[in-house]
Amino acid sequence: MAGGNLRPSRLRTPERSAEAIWVTCILKVFHHMEVRVRKPRVALGLPVFNGAQYLRKAVDSVLGQEFEDFQLVISDNASSDGTPEICQEYARHDSRVRYFRNKTNIGIAPNFQRVFHLCKAPISNGWYMITCAAPAS
What we know:
The protein contains five helices and four strands; from the N terminus they run H-H-E-H-E-H-E-H-E. By secondary structure, it is an alpha/beta fold. Helix 4 links the parallel strand 2 and strand 3.
């Protein structure tokens, strides 16, 4: 059964059962979902520690870009300011934002490495990973 070959008039013929029509419709929906669900071409890694003062401006700048085929991966290094709440808010409202929080502060370099490994976009063959750093407080 080809995904785009079924016309609505063919779906309503008497010889087709309601179950067959339902299955055909479900398969078409899954086909369209499968086309849309794929890994983004660009991953932006944002390691952060106590960056609440600048975080909204930085994330709004990233999300406001015309190019939208990216994911923003935030690795919070056990911040003690409002950083976790801000990040969780963005992750709830935009599917491109993924938020991870370290239980303890692991240091600057390990947090950069962690955000690099958390990014889902492949790093070769035309896919890119970029690190954005929030200003140190």
